[in-house]
Amino acid sequence: MKRENQSSVSEFLLLGLPIRPDQQAVVFALFLLMYLTTVLGNLLIILLIRLDPRLHTPMYFFLSHLAFSDISLSSITVPKLLVNIQAQQQSISYEECISQMYFFVLFGCLDNFLLAVMAYDRYVAICHPLHYVTVMREKLCALLVAGSWFFCCVHALLHTLLLVQLSFCAENIIPNFFCDLTALLKLSCSDISLNELVIFTEGGMLFVFPLSSILGSYIRIGTTVLRVPSTKTVYKTFSTCGSHLFVVSLYYGTLAGVYFFSFSQNSSDRDIIASVIYTVVTPMLNPFIYSLRNKDMKQALEMFVYKANFYK
Fold first, then answer.
1. For 119, which of 17, 107, 165, 217 could close a Cys bridge (C-beta 3.0–4.6 Å)?
2. Per residue, what are the HEC states of 240-268?
3. What is the reported pTM?
4. Cross-strand pairs, 13
5. Is residue 54 within 8 Å of residue 296, measured between CB atoms?
């Protein structure tokens, strides 16, 4: 009853992707293929890490959690989008919309923290190799992941609790394919100054701190590697860092476009493109960039295929 008094809107309408009716079949097949690639690729990563004892290291421990987070991030939005395209159904209930927003913020934040943790792991491995085993202990790794989950759950819960206090009077059209926090704030007929303040302060801190940690880690890695006169070592390190930094740039660039610049510019098509890259493309690329190009992961995959064929 309390929520009904605060909001007269029982459902929202998702406009979805800006596509023509004759393009829907192609777009549906494309997004279904990208989603299946994301889910199967990341599940394969998790499976290989669990089965191969050689991958029971801090780096792959963090990678398995990143893979799970990527699966969850895509699963929150893409299945609903596929259903809407196939059934020509644009509505989403108030409760489902709020739940979708909560989990989207949660796993988006978790990706953010895990990227920073992985960068720190690489920093210790390259800059302090003799102390790596003592620094990256199992207890510390578990604590870093647990801390990431805790802060992200609190972060998502804070924005959700602030959002449900708002009223949504008449306008209920969301110009996106999922319930985005900034889009919902624009639809509210209540004062959203507190929500905006929390986004730019608390949300900004959770955005800047991991990014600063990533950049700081890789600056230290770069300065350390450049002191080594081995061309092979320099090339190998920067090849790995280049892939990671590409994903970081893609992730943080689209994240900033969606959450920090959408208030000042009303370009819904730009926000949708950024959201697609953030929620679909980046999680799909992670298995290839972080794992399938990795020698240890390739060996684990070959061993897995060999055992699968052997037991047939």
1. 217
2. HHHHHHHHHHHHHHHHHHHHCCCCCCCCH
3. 0.87
4. 91, 173
5. yes
